[in-house]
Design brief:
By secondary structure, the chain is α+β, with helices and mostly antiparallel strands. The chain is about 45% helix and about 15% strand. The protein has a five-stranded mixed β-sheet with strand order 6-10-11-7-12, covered by helices on one side. It has a three-stranded antiparallel β-sheet with strand order 3-9-8. About 20% of the residues are buried. The C terminus is likely disordered.
């Protein structure tokens, strides 16, 4: 499909009204809660020291009505009651509606690519076989009682934290796949990424605990665990005598599912040397690892690891990977220097000055062996002057950097006739140019990558 999936069609009248009423009720509810706590704080004169930590879980209670807000609420609801619609004639919106109808009436599955904006149509039989192959490769069928055991344990944790009236039980969401169309020989041998959207609500709590742990470790150790492209660019700019250096780039294969229980425990032990982690924190983190996968009513668990799993799509999966990454990066930095090596999730980049081919090969073997000790496999390339890392190309020869796009990933921009708010449409060109400028080292590279000179 060559359409930008973020284009918004004009909805049918009834659909629009339902969504408008829903959002309006949501706004009124939040305003009532805001007024309630504001008045309560003024009455108490002092902040409530007994405030419970809710970890972002929203209350299911309805806020009390507020007399001062009543006129505003009545006017708002009256405005919705008298809303009027007009018919629009637009070729782009007409085409969007036709595309939507074709998708709804199609007997094929529309599968997104893993790291590009592409979508692919697959026959149901082919899709089901790919999904089955990816599930059975790493999962086995589970007992029906397993989900009840996990939910009971989650309920005990939620009760202990006094959020039992807010947290939901694990939802039995259907697993799905994305296609790795950037891999070699994709047409003949398609590779997939298995996404498991079934996750325990306790993962929301684990995410907040892990974020604090990871931030403390990064601030204390100054390890290069990058959060975005700009931090990698800053690191690159600080390298002196770039022409005398070479890159080593590596990728951790199947990082999420390859993390074992022992590896995570070792990473937590490492983290305890930098910050306090209570037994309750550890219990929450480990419970969030108890994962099930659901496919057409059948429950699956990971092979040879009981219930332990770090799933793609879990609330705290990225934070788990960052913690394990910091644990491994700390040891690599001890050997090679913290300024010479860094990680972004499963992508690593290192730089070395004046090393020979044999030296680079020894480093390659050593880094590979280091990851194997933790049950992780990597692909690694050495002696590189130019690398494509995240969405930036770095060139040591001419000391430049500029935007990079993965193969088959052609940019598709939102159409001005899309049903976005007008201010969003107006700001899109500015935002795109700002992003390209941020990851371009000079005006020449910026001009080459400008949307006006690279029309999709």
């Amino acid at each position: 499909m060559s359409k930008k999936m973020k284009n918004i069609p004009i909805p049918p009248k009834n659909t629009y009204l339902k969504k408008l009423i829903e959002k309006t009720e949501n706004v009124i509810k939040r305003m009532r809660w805001k007024a309630f706590f504001f008045e309560k704080q003024n009455k108490d004169d002092q902040p409530n020291s007994n405030h419970n930590e809710n970890f972002g879980f929203k209350s299911r209670k309805c806020p009390p009505q507020n007399e001062d807000l009543a006129p505003f609420e009545n006017d708002l609801l009256n405005m919705i009651k008298h809303i009027q619609f007009k018919n629009t004639q637009d070729d782009f919106q007409d085409q969007l509606r036709k595309d939507i109808n074709r998708i709804n009436n199609s007997s094929k599955a529309f599968i997104p690519a893993d790291k590009t904006t592409n979508y692919y149509e697959l026959d149901k039989k082919q899709h089901d076989q790919l999904l089955k192959n990816n599930i059975t490769a790493t999962y086995k069928k589970a007992n029906e009682s397993t989900i009840h055991e996990i939910n009971n344990e989650a309920r005990n944790i939620a009760t202990d934290l006094n959020i039992h009236d807010r947290a939901e039980r694990m939802a039995e969401r259907q697993a799905f796949i994305t296609l790795k169309d950037h891999k070699e020989n994709f047409e003949n041998n398609p590779k997939c990424r298995l996404i498991n959207p079934a996750k325990s609500e306790i993962g929301r709590i684990s995410k907040q605990i892990l974020e604090k742990i990871n931030t403390t470790i990064r601030n204390t150790t100054s390890l290069n665990q990058w959060k975005h492209s700009l931090s990698v660019i800053n690191w690159f700019n600080n390298v002196q005598d770039k022409q005398q250096h070479t890159f080593i780039i590596f990728d951790i294969e199947n990082f999420y599912p390859s993390i074992t229980e022992d590896l995570l425990k070792n990473a937590l032990s490492f983290a305890k040397t930098f910050c306090k982690i209570t037994d309750k924190d550890t219990n929450i983190i480990m419970h969030a690892r108890k994962s099930l996968l659901f496919n057409n009513g059948t429950t699956w668990i990971k092979k040879d690891s009981n219930l332990f799993d770090v799933t793609m799509g879990s609330f705290d999966g990225a934070e788990i990977c960052e913690l394990v990454g910091l644990f491994i990066l700390n040891k690599l930095a001890t050997t090679y220097g913290k300024d010479n090596i860094g990680l972004y999730r499963d992508d690593g980049l290192a730089i070395f000055k004046n090393i020979s081919g044999p030296q680079a090969d020894r480093i390659r073997k050593d880094i590979t062996q280091h990851f194997k000790q933790h049950g992780l496999n990597i692909t690694i390339q050495t002696n590189l002057k130019i690398v494509n890392y995240l969405d930036v190309t770095f060139n040591l020869t001419n000391e430049s950097y500029y935007p990079y796009r993965k193969p088959n990933n052609q940019p598709l921009y939102i159409n001005t006739k899309s049903n976005h708010p007008p201010n969003i449409i107006r700001q899109l060109p500015v935002a795109i140019n700002r992003r390209i400028a941020d990851i371009s080292c000079n005006e020449t590279n910026l001009t080459k990558q400008s949307p006006s000179t690279n029309t999709p």
